[in-house]
Amino acid sequence: MSENTGAGHAAASYRTAGVDIDAGDRAVELMKEWVKKARRPEVLGGLGGFAGLFDASALKRYERPLLASATDGVGTKVDIARRMGVYDTIGHDLVAMVMDDIVVCGAEPLFMTDYICVGKVHPERVAAIVKGIAEGCVLAGCALVGGETAEHPGLLGEDDFDVAGAGTGVVEADRQLGPDRIRKGDRVVAMAASGLHSNGYSLVRHVLLNQAGLALESRIDELGRTLGEELLEPTRIYSLDCLALIRTTEVHAFSHVTGGGLAANLARVVPDGLHAVVDRSTWSPAPVFDLVGRTGSVERLELERTLNMGVGMIAIVPEESTDAALTTLADRGVDAWVAGEITDRGEHGTGAALVGDYAS
């Protein structure tokens, strides 16, 4: 006697359950050309293997190589990309969030993998996301050695997606940067952000889209473009700029300004007994920061602990290295300036503090 558990129903398949293997295969074919552009000589094999291979014999030139790793995503900025139907820039954000964390310790980015989760595989859309990741890897000087695209029907809507990534870099042990190198009198060199980068979008979306009801397609005069274009501006990737600084002058530490804002991230690399004082009057944040603050009646301190306020990366250098650092960054097209210095703990306590008012 046979048992029929599917009486009255069509035969089930992975496709009827919502997963389209053929669409996934087409997405892989479309992304291959972009992954090829994000290679390094140490990468072995091509796309499609179970694991990405990186020739570790390249590390023999190091006396004591330290591997640095990081993983991250881009948060709710993906919602802006989805609403705008623009998918080829969010990958830049992903690479920046991962590889600019890795370079903080002085490590050279080596390779990266990505994870893309979607409600439904739209091959061209997935390929566009990977295109952005590959282009970001080129800007960071690392290879994209592989990744995963997962289709989650029933958990995500057909147009929903999220991205995450993990990266690896390497630094010589005796060249590792960090708090131990920082000295009183060091200068805090700020590198300009390209915009909001990839942090604080829950606040930004709540204020501008939900509370104020602004349309992403609306042109905002003070921004000089549409709101959507401003919010999708890719995160600046500083990895190669930081490595250039290390090659050309003395650097004691870097700080990647992400979630928590400038002061909190800078405090992470300031040693006990010293303090970083940053003068707001040395720069004027881009109009988008004022737009968020003014529209949502967000207090300045709340803005500063949520958004980067126009500074995406910090380099802490000896006073005598300041001119060389600024020259190197200017030559690379990075807007940078001396924003503060390292002092004794004093009246501001430990960590880092912003003082004064922003330049008008």
UniProtKB/TrEMBL annotation:
Cited SUPFAM superfamilies? PurM C-terminal domain-like, PurM N-terminal domain-like
Give a yes or no for keyword Transport in this entry: no
Where is this protein found?
Cytoplasm
- The protein's annotated pathway: Purine metabolism; IMP biosynthesis via de novo pathway; 5-amino-1-(5-phospho-D-ribosyl)imidazole from N(2)-formyl-N(1)-(5-phospho-D-ribosyl)glycinamide: step 2/2
**Cross-referenced Pfam families:** AIRS, AIRS_C
Q: What is its main location?
A: cytoplasm
Sorted alphabetically, the keyword list is:
ATP-binding, Cytoplasm, Ligase, Nucleotide-binding, Purine biosynthesis
Which NCBIfam families does UniProt cross-reference here? purM
Q: What is this protein called?
A: Phosphoribosylformylglycinamidine cyclo-ligase
